[in-house]
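Posting for a labmate who doesn't have an account.
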Amino acid sequence: MEKTEISVKTIKEIQKRLIGRIEPHANHKLFEVDLITGKIVLAEFERTMSWKQNAKKTVLIKKDCVYISSMNIKNAIKHLNKNSNGSKF
């Protein structure tokens, strides 16, 4: 009698979980700072729609990145140097 092994591929589901919440000040933008390369760009959002709620925006979080709420890139660099993210909780 021959033993056979049945291997089952498990598909790892992508689960979304709340890490934190950033509520930017009025007229601010959310900047994404890559800590490895030092590149600063506007953060990317995913918009979800529901018939019960208005459009809800969530940030697409990338590895080794920090998110800073600021009026412009110049001020985002200042907040980064002060080690504060410039958002209210």
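Reply:
Got it, the structure tokens are right above this. The chain has a mean pLDDT of 75.
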